[in-house]
Amino acid sequence: MAMVTPPRYGSDPSLAATRVDHAVLRVSHVGVSFGGIQALVDVDLAVVRGSITGLIGPNGAGKTTLFNVITGLQPPDTGQVILDGENVTGLKPHKRARLGLARTFQRLEIFGSMSVFDNVLTGAELSQGWAHPESASPREVARRAIERVGIEAIADNRADSLPVGLARMVEVARALATNPQVLLLDEPSSGLNEEESVRFASLLLQLAKEGLALLLVEHDMEMVMRICSFLYVLDFGRLLAAGTPLEIQVNPAVQAAYLGTEA
Ligand SMILES: Nc1ncnc2c1ncn2[C@@H]1O[C@H](COP(=O)(O)OP(=O)(O)OP(=O)(O)O)[C@@H](O)[C@H]1O
Ligand SMILES: [Mg+2]
Prior knowledge:
The chain has helices at about 15-20, 65-70, 95-100, 115-125, 140-150, 165-175, 195-210, 220-225, 245-250, 250-255; strands at about 25-35, 35-50, 50-55, 80-85, 85, 100-105, 180-185, 215, 230-235, 240-245. By secondary structure, it is α/β, with parallel strands linked by helices. The chain is about 35% helix and about 25% strand. The N and C termini lie far apart (about 40 Å). The protein has two domains: about 20-100 and about 180-263, Rossmann fold (3-Layer(aba) Sandwich), CATH 3.40.50.300; about 105-180, no CATH class.
């Protein structure tokens, strides 16, 4: 993959606008209600290539719902999802996947009775014909994705025999096997020990360096603050703040709503 120099975002007032201009994925005025609950209200967000964008907020803030809107599992009541310049708001999930959108799930969605390798192979096979050259065999693509994530040692194990942290890595490998341009990760490091988390964070940084656009929902604040170049904070379905990790850390509204209650 070609190296891409990420745009430099300082903390100037036009930061958000600059991001929107460079966005490969854009969410605009998205609203979702479940009966009386407003899960998302007028949410705007931009995800750029070559960097990790964080999406944080307390439990129930609407993070997973936003992922579902972006990937097509949840139709929004209002607003749009723009992927690579195309309005995909009405497209089915598999069509969005074809445009280079991949994700992992907070509640694991791997096939328990299949091996790790076969789980990852489903990603490679699904995307054969559009994400890989004709000559690339899906098995080879799967093997590389497994190697990339560092789970070769468990490739032949049944997925339902794995601890949750490793099962999440299988989802990451399966997503990578589709050769995405945008990758959404919903709490990927929960269940990993400290050493595994550090290694995983390095992998995410390396993927960003290679040009991937990542949107990360993560409860590990130390990791978020260290590897994300920009953060969006959701609270009760509304965007409470957006900015660099430093700006977010010193934002009083964020501290009150979220960081203050984290410890
Ligand atoms: N399918 C659904 N039907 C009804 N309510 C839902 C549904 N999905 C989510 N909600 C509600 O929408 C709100 C946002 O939930 P969501 O799962 O998106 O939050 P979250 O930020 O991902 O939380 P967490 O950090 O706990 O994963 C919550 O009040 C939740 O109960
Ligand atoms: Mg969630």
